[in-house]
Amino acid sequence: MRIGLLTDGGYPYATGESRLWCDRLVRGLGGHEFDVYALSRSAHQEECGWLELPPQVRRVRTAPLWTAPLGGRPYGRRDRNRFLGHFRELAAAVCGDGTEFAAGLYGLAGLAAECGGLHTALRSEAAVRALEAACRAPGANRTVQSARVPDLLAFADLLERALRPLSLDWYTADGLGAVDLCHAASGGTASLPGLLAKRFFGVPLLVTEYGVQLRAHYIAGGAERAPVRALLAAFHGRLAAEVYGQAAVITPGNIHARRWQERCGADRARLRTVYPGMEATRFAAVGEGTDSGDPDTLVWVGRIEPAKDLVSLLHAFAEIRREETGARLRIVGAPAQGPEGAAYLAHCRALAAQLFPDEAADAHAVGSNPVTFEEIGGPEAPELADAYAGGAVVVLSSVVEGFPVSLVEAMFCGRATVSTDVGAVVEVIGGTGLVVPPRNPRALADACVALLRDPQRRERLGAAARARALELFTVEQNVTAFNAIYLDLISHCPVRRTPVGETGDPRPFAYPAEAYVAGSWTAPAATGRTPSWAESGSEPAPAHREAAV
């Protein structure tokens, strides 16, 4: 089977959120071929290069979303009127009830395929005026009605980048039209090529979301003015609804993401939860070993940023020290990229120094702080597994969390855990750890003290957690689940998909009955193309990498 893997800011690049699970998926499905269609998000991502690709990756095509658009010829009067008609439908849907979103989106895609130049038109004065008219129209969202010209210009720029996949040259018979199935590694912009492949060629679409894309867009737009944020939220909401409506199967990574998808209009019958696959072997030595870690040490592992709420953790540890004077806390992780992450780390260090002054046995001894800040690769934690091995209890104190990766890693290591009830934590832990309300240092402290004082309970919880993680969260279960979904989807989709109707679905009776009769006399034009997995006698072609601008 030939899979078109669609990514946005991830695989095959060496940086990005989807790179690891996509790489494990591709490597685990050696019986299939993969064409990767990747959107890049920054110059730094492209400078870091690609991961080493396995032989089943036959082609890679990339397109940047971060560069300025290339120049193009302006539309003539006829094409300009056609553009404005479709753009007004899209703008009215974003500012209003969303009923014309699909018509506007696919109209713009058709215009881009025939004439090109869409990026120039989306930034034109006519487009901004049409957007302004939609914002001022009766029934428009009250927040967008207050949009001023700078807001409209800012949104037009962001909209052009989001719709840039419409102008790519990927939608040809030997491009996305040649794959048997499109698998989008996230919703939103990454799914746009899949929507067009379904529209133009009838290729079925599978969408996987391990994070909540709409929440990510809300957070990313925090620096913009309220009207711009409202327009962005409306656009991504309408796009999500269209993606969920057209996808044959949607695979959320947990029930938390599934609830978001259902609220955005996803059909429950098309939802299948597939947990992320994580590499368990790197934690096997710790999980199967007899050393249960320092019985007085708590460990926190993750990316240091405000959402992780280390401030509450430090205040909780102050309560713990009052009852367990020998307790220690190891905070292992690097700050999030950007000045905010570094500033938050400095704030946490200062708070730790204030709450826990260096202690010394006497006037001549050097004091030590019970809280340490470390990074993976340092002398105390040369490997990630060593960080979890250093303590008896692993703590997660987040106020915002999607799928808690560090919690699963602790489970692989057989460690008892104390976590806050956010995101998919309860679903992941499943009764094998203690869960407390977020932003509640007292409750967090009580749970940690209970486990520090009860080694038998820690051992029972750790063993149960490891067994649960090995059952649900391994790479093997993830690959097996997707392989079954691939086969199920292709079994319900006809091979001869080229003739499609106005909705993008295969047109019934497009081929004569004789086309289905075996024999060399059948005309090639009538038989349609042969799927990649049905070809015989052909040697695998070498991986082909292309760059589409």
The largest beta-sheet arranges its strands as 6-5-4-1-2-3-13
Terminal CA distance: 27 Å
Helical segment count: 22
- How many strand segments? 13
Radius of gyration over all CA atoms, rounded: 27 Å
User: What best-fitting shape do the alpha-carbon axes yield?
Assistant: globular
Secondary structure category: alpha/beta
Profile the largest sheet. Answer: 7 strands, parallel
Helix content: 40-55%
Integer average pLDDT = 87
Q: Could you tell me the strand content as a percent range?
A: 5-15%
- Low-confidence stretches at least 5 residues in length (pLDDT < 50)? 519-528, 537-545
In short, what is this structure?
With 549 residues, this protein is α/β, with parallel strands linked by helices. The protein has helices at 19-28, 43-47, 77-95, 101-115, 118-122, 125-136, 142-145, 149-162, 192-201, 213-220, 226-246, 255-263, 284-288, 310-323, 339-355, 384-389, 405-412, 425-429, 441-452, 455-472, 475-492, 524-527; strands at residues 2-8, 33-40, 57-64, 181-184, 205-209, 249-252, 294-301, 328-332, 371-374, 391-396, 416-420, 434-436, 544-547.
Describe the protein's architecture and organization.
With 549 residues, the protein is α/β, with parallel strands linked by helices. The chain is built from 22 helices and 13 strands. A seven-stranded parallel sheet has the order 6-5-4-1-2-3-13, sandwiched between helices. Strands 9-8-7-10-11-12 form a six-stranded parallel sheet, with helices on both faces. The chain is globular and about 80 Å long. The two termini are 27 Å apart.
